[in-house]
Amino acid sequence: MSASLRIDALTKTFEGASTPAVDAISFDVAPGECLAVLGPSGSGKSTVLRSIAGLDVPDSGRILVDGADVAGVAPERRGMAMVFQRPLLFPHLSVLDNVAFAATVAGQPRREARADAEQFLALVQLEGFGARPVTALSGGQEQRVALARALAARPRVLLLDEPFSALDPELRLDMHDLLARIRAQLNPTVVMVTHDRDEAATVADKVALLQGGHLLQHDAVERLYTRPRSLAVARLMGGRVEIPGTVAEGVHTSTLGRVPAPEGEQWPDGAGVLVLRHEAVQIISGDAPPCDDATITLDAVVAERRARGARAVLELVVGESPSTTALEAEVAASRAITAGQRVTALIPRSACAVVPLA
Ligand SMILES: Nc1ncnc2c1ncn2[C@@H]1O[C@H](COP(=O)(O)OP(=O)(O)OP(=O)(O)O)[C@@H](O)[C@H]1O
Q: Which of 43, 55, 82, 164 to mutate to test the pocket of ligand 1 (most atoms within 8 A of CB)?
């Protein structure tokens, strides 16, 4: 059921707009892979998805499914199915007939189409719901029906446009689990639009990160967090530690001291901002462990502590005035670390990346 997808220099400018909504975007999605198209509002995510589906026509660029260009192919003939933010179910049909609709319209005998639909309802854990009117469903159940309906079309590529964003947080987590089960069972190629990086990190193998119609980085989720290519990527992924400095011969020098590039990484000479995830900063409130080459050990003062539910954010100050550096770290809320306290911050060197200044 899965196909490869290649997006090649996709460009689209809407009538009357001065800049492209999508500007020469290219990426590949392997068969069975789940790609999240992530970015802030207006970054071009839906335009990319709608172009793949054939609902928007790009000005230039190609969309290849298993190597074949789908330009000019009608949306319903592309072997794709799309789930939108709203389930868009037919209110006059039962749950089962909503799922069986496409097959019935395509001429499959009703009984067969319904039997098939039952299987997809079971897959989305709505076994026994077939006879209900869709108007009697909760939001989460409606979205499950929309997913079952899309899957019943046996798409080669499943397109999801913010499908869970209208659901409450608990239900969203359930839907993420459901999507994982669907992937394990049917292995579809999935492209999902989301503006939520946690959602992208939870459901996707890779992320295409967009901003202002440009593709900033297409990479594995983990690399977007730990190896951002630019300051914009680090910030969009929620990075909160930025330390300006200079790189010479692969060593970044700043108020934190000298940080050599991790093995296999190349940092170009010149001005560069050291970025690292606040989650990677470990806080020791007692005796510091002995120094080792793999770890940066810093004396710090807690300037502020902010509550974040089960976690707490610590604003740290490293160094002496006037050359101090601000650093953020996160600890379990249960840890009794208070503002004004002296602590040791440990940073694995492997957690450090250097990106160009702005
Ligand atoms: N049909 C259209 N006509 C004119 N402009 C459009 C149209 N659709 C999108 N745009 C513009 O193209 C740009 C990208 O929009 P798009 O919907 O692709 O972004 P998005 O990242 O999906 O945003 P959101 O998360 O808010 O849905 C925006 O500036 C938007 O206003």
A: 43
